[in-house]
Amino acid sequence: MTSDLAPFIAILTLGFVICAAGSEIVDENADPIKSFEVEEETWALLALKSAWNDMAEHLVSWDPSKGTPCGAQGWVGIKCHRDNSTGLVQVVSIVLPKASLDGGFLVGDIGSLSKLEKLALPGNRLSGRIPVELSILQNLVSLDLSSNLLWGTIPVELGSLQKLKALSLANNSLTGVIPPEIGNLTQLTVLYLQQNQLVGKIPAELCDLTALEALYLHSNYLTGPIPPELGRLKKLAVLLLFSNELTGSIPETLANLTNLEALVLSENSLSGSIPPAIGSFPVLRVLYLDSNNLSGLIPPEIGLLPCLQKYCSSNPTNAYFNGPPAIRLFSNNLQGPIPPEIGNLQSLEILELSSNQLSGGIPPELGNMTSLVHLDLQFNNLSGPIPPDISLLSRLEVLSLGYNRLSGAIPYEVGLLFSLRLMYLPNNSLSGHIPADLEHLKMLTQVDLDFNELTGSIPKQLGFLPNLQALFLQQNKLQGSIPPELGQLRSLRFLNLGNNNLTSTIPRELSSLTGLSQLLLNNNSLSGAIPPELGLLQFPLYSSLPEHVHFVSDQSAMDLSGNYLSGPVPPELGNCSLLTVLNLADNLLTGTVPEELGSLSFLASLVLENNQLEGKVPSSLGNCSGLIAIRLGHNRLTGTIPESFGLLTHLQTLDMSFNGLTGKIPPQIGLCKSLLSLALNDNALKGSIPTELTTLPILQFASMAHNKLTGVIPPTLDSLAQLQVLNLEGNMLSGSIPARVGAIRDLRELVLSSNRLSDNIPSSLGSLLFLRVLLLDKNNFTGTIPPTLCNCSSLMLLNLSSNGLVGEIPRLGSFLRFQADSFTRNTGLCGPPLPFPRCSAADPTGEAANTLADFHNWKKWLTVLGPAVAVLAVLVFVVLLAKWFHLRPVQVTYDPSENVPGKMVVFVNNFVCDYDDIVAATGGFDDSHLLGKGGFGAVYDAVLPDGSHLAVKRLRNENVANDPSFEAEISTLGLIKHRNLMSLKGFYCSAQEKLLFYDYMPCGSLHDVLHGGGVASASPSTKPLVLGNLGEIVSVTTWVKAMNQQGKGMETFDSELVSLSPSSGPVLVQMMQLALHCTSDWPSRRPSMGKVVAFLELLQESLLREEEESKQLLLLTDKTDQQSEKEHGKKKETSRRKEDLYLVAFEAWSNAKLAAGNVRLHHRICSSSFGGNQHAAEAVGSHRFGGVATVDVGLLHDGPKLDTGDTLLVDFSLVTSRSSTGEHLEKQHYHQEEAASRNSSHS
C-alpha cells in the first residue's frame, strides 16, 4: 500500500514546493488568475519530471525554487512565448532529444499546457502507451516521440489535432493498424510511422492528406496492395514503403505524383511488371524497387527520367531523404536485355540490377553514364564480352559483373578507370591474360577474378597497387610463378591464388605482408620448402570484410595444401600468433610436427594430413585451447595419442587415421565434450575401448577400425545418442553386441566385421530405422537371424557372412533386397536367397543343415569324407585335362597354357556361347579386332556364329587376379537393368582370364559423341552440330557450352522433358552444369563417377527436402504464407549462390563417400569458407564389402541451412589408389605427369 501511495505523496510534496515558491516569485500586483495559469504549467511540467527517471540529470534546472519555466533563467528544453493580448508568458515548446530520459507519462494535468505547439522527445527511453490526453493540446503543430520504447496502438484521438503538421512516432514498438482518423489531419506535411510493428492495410484515408510531402511507412508489417489513391498526393516528394509485406502491382497512378523525388518500394512482395509510366516522373531521382517479385522486361521508358538525364537545379528532397541519384532493381525476376536507353541517364550515380534473370550483352551505351559511381550487374545471365566503352565511366568506383556468363578477355581499357576501387568479375568465362594496365588503378582496394578461365602469368604490376586489400584469383588456369612484387602490397589482407597451375617456390617476399589475414595458395604445383620467413606474419583478424566480399571466412588462414611442398614444417610458424587455420595437407612434407605449433593460442583448425610426417604427436597441441579440428591422418606418425588432447574442450574433429600410432586410446578424449568426429582407424592401437568415450554427448562419427583393440564393446554405448557411424572393423574385440545399441536412434552405419564377437545378434537392432549399413561378417555370432532386422527399412548394405548363424533367413521388409553373398559361410543357414540347403517344414530352424556343426569329432568326419573328396578331385582333374586337350586344336595367337577353363555366366535368355566361340570371334584377341584400350583392359569386336555382335572387354590380369569378390560384384552388375545403361549380357571367369560381354554399339564411343570425331554411321541425334553462322563443325559439349554462355541453356533440353515438369528448370540447369564439368577440357577438373553419384544424391535429398517443406507450408496461415514469400524474395541472391555452391559442396560430400577399402582420401583441402559462421562438411565413415566402397556423410545436411551471412567450410578431395602395403602414392616425376595429364584427351 505504501508503494502505491508514493507517486501521490511525491506530487503533494511538489505542490507544497510550488505554492511556497509561487508566493515568493509572483508579483504582489499580478493578476491572480494569470498567476494561477503560470502555476498550472509549472505543475504540469513537474508532473512530467516526476514520471521520468533523469539519470543524466538533464532536468536539474526544472526546479521552481530556482525560477519559473519561463523566467529569466528558464528551464532546459522549454521555450515560452508572450501573448500580446493577455501579456501572459506561456510554454509553447518542449524539446528534449536524446536526454536519457526513462519512464512513462504522467499526464493528468498536461492540458494545462494549452499553448503548447511543439512536443519533441525523440531518442529517449520513454515507455508505455502514447497518452490519449495529448489530444487536448489543440495548438500542437509538431509531435515527435520517435526512437523510444513506446508500445500499444496509435490513439485514434490524435486525429483531432487539426493544426498538426508533423507527426513522428517512428522507431518504437507500436502495434495494431494505422488509424484512419489520421486522414483528418489535413495540414499534415510529414508522417513518420516507420520501424514499428504496424499491421493491416494502408488506410485509403491517408490519401486525403493533400498537404503531405513525406510519407514514411517502411519497416512494418503492412499488407495488401499499394492504394492507387496515393496518386492524389500532388505535393508528395518522398514515399518510403519498403520492408513491409505489400502485394499486388505498382499502381500506374503513382505517375501523377509530379513532385515525387524518391520512390522506395523495396523488400516487399510486389509482382507484375514495372509500369512504363515510371519514366514520366519529372523530378524523380531515387527509384528503389529491389527485393520484390517483379517480372517482365525493364521498360525502356526508364531512360526518359528527366532529372536523371541531367542535373536538377534544386534538391529539396534532402530535407526528407538524403541519398545520391540511384536506380536499384536487384533481387527480382526481371528478364530480357538491359535497355540501351538507360545510357541516357547521365546524372545517375548508382545502377544496381543484380540477382535477376537478365540476358544478352552489356549495352555499350552504359558508357554514356558519365556520373556513374556504382555499377552492379552481378548474378544474372549476361553474356558476351565486357564492352570497352566501360572505360568512359571516369567516376566509376565499383564495377560488379560477377556470376554471369561473360566471355572474352578483360579489356585493357579498364586500366583507364582511375577512380575504380572495386573490380568484381568472378564466376564468368573470362579468358586471356590479366591486363597489366591495372597498375594504373591506384585507388583499387579489391580485385576479384575468381572462377574464370584466365591464362598466362600473374602480372607483377599488381604489386604496384598501394591500396589493394584483397586479391582473389583462384580457380583459373594461371601459370608461372608467384611474382615476388606482391610482397609490396602492404595493405593486402586477403591473397587467394588457389586452384591454378602455379609452379616454382613460394616467394619469401610474401613475409612482408604484415597485414595479411588469409594466404591461400592451395591446389597448385608449388614446390620447394615452406619459407621460414612466413613465421613473421601475424595473421590479424578484421572486424569487417571488404565490400562485395561474399564468400570469405572471417578466420585468419594459411592454406598451402595440395601442392608439392617438401622439407619440414617450419617451427617459425608457431610465431603466427593470431593464426586460426593452418592447412598444409597433401604435400610431401617430412620431419616432425613442430612443438612450437602449440604456441598458436588462437588456432582453430590444424590440417597436416596426407604428408610424410614422422615422429610423435606433440603434446603441446593441448595448449591450443581453441582448436576445433585436428587432422593428422595419412602420415607416418608414431608414439601415443597425447593425453593433453583432453584439454581441448572445443574440439569437434580429431582425425589421426592411417598412421603408426601405438599404445592405448587415452580416456581423456572423453573430456572433449564438443567432439563430433573421431577417426583413429588404421593404426596399431591396443587395449580396450575406454568407456569414457561413451560420455561424448554429440559424437556423430567414430572409427577405430583396423587396430589391435581388445576387450568388449562398452555396454553404455547407447549414451552416444547422436551417433550416426560406428566402425570397429578389423580388431580383436570379443563378447557380444550390447543390446542397448538399439537405442541409438540416429545410427546409420554399424561396422563390426573381422572381430571375435560372439553370442546372438541382438533383436534390438531392429529399432534402428535409419540404419543403412550393417556389417557383422567374419565373427563368431550364433543363433538365428532376428526377424526384427527386417524392420530396418533404410538398410541398403548387409553382411552377416562367415559366422555360425543357423535357421531360416527372414524374407521380409528390407531383407528382400539382399542376395546370397550377404549370408554365405554360415553352415547352419537355410532358405532363399541361398541356393542350398533349403529349409524343410519338419526342420524350420535349419538344425539338420547344421549337423556338421554339431559333431565335435572332426576326425570321424574326415574319415567319412576323405575317400569321397579324393574321388571328386580325380574326376575334376580328368575333366580339366579333357578340356585342355579340347582347346589345343584352336589356331589362335593367344597362349593356350594361360587359358584354364572357367565359369561362363549369362544374364539374358537368348544369349548362348562358350569360351571357344569368343576366342574364335576375336581372332584370339588379335589387334585387328581391337576397339579400344583402357586402364582396366582392352575391348574387342566379336561376331558369334549365330550373328550376335558383341563388345568383349578383356580385363587385365593384374587388376583382377585372385580377387574373390569379382564374381559377386559382376553378378550384381548383371542384375541392373536401365534404359540408359548398356546392359551386361554375361561374363567369363577363370583364374587367368576375365571377360565381360556387352552389346556392340555401332556409333562409336561416348567420347566420340561428346567431343566430336570418329563417329561412324552416327544417328541424327549424335551427328556433329553446326554452330552459329560460322559453319563450324563442333561437338555436343562445345554446342551446349556455347548455348549456356548465350543464356540459352534451357534450349538444349528436349521439350518433352521440360514439359513433364515445368518447374524443373533449376534442376536441369544443375544437371547441365554437372555434365559440363564431366566433359571439361582439363582432365584434372573432371569429377570421378563416385563424385557424380554423390552430387545426384545430394540433389535428390535437396529436392525431397524442398518438397517436404512445401507440404508443411500449406498448413500455415495466410500471413505466414505472405511472410515466407517475402523472405523468399529477400533471399534470392543467397538462393542463387546456393546453386553455384552445389558443385563445391558435393566435392566434400562425395569424397567422403569414396574413402574406403582400396581407395583412400589423398587430397583433402580445407580451402574455402563462405560468409560468417562456419559449418564443416566432414567425412563420417568408410568401409568395404565385396569390393564395393560405401560411406555415409551425415553432417553436411544435418547442420543449419545456408542463409545470408552463413558459412560453408568445404573440404576438397581428390582420390588416388592405395597400394596393398598402405604406403603413400609417390609424387616422383610429377612435372611430367602433370603435363601428360593436361595434354591427355582421355575421356
Please provide a written account of the structure:
- By secondary structure, this protein is an alpha/beta fold.
- Among the domains are: about 35-200, Alpha-Beta Horseshoe (Leucine-rich repeat, LRR (right-handed beta-alpha superhelix)); about 205-210 and about 220-350, Ribonuclease Inhibitor (Leucine-rich repeat, LRR (right-handed beta-alpha superhelix)); about 360-450, Ribonuclease Inhibitor (Leucine-rich repeat, LRR (right-handed beta-alpha superhelix)); about 905-1010, Phosphorylase Kinase, domain 1 (2-Layer Sandwich), CATH 3.30.200; about 1035-1105, Transferase(Phosphotransferase) domain 1 (Transferase(Phosphotransferase), domain 1).
- The chain is about 15% helix and about 20% strand.
- It contains 16 helices and 68 strands.
- The strands form 13 sheets. The chain has a 30-stranded mixed beta sheet, with no helix packed on it.
- Helix 1 (about 1-25) runs antiparallel to helix 2 and helix 13 (about 1090-1115) crosses helix 15.
- The radius of gyration is 39 Å and the shape is globular.
- The N and C termini lie far apart (about 90 Å).
- The model is unreliable at about 1-35, about 315-320, about 845-900, about 1015-1035, about 1115-1120 and about 1130-1243 (pLDDT under 50).
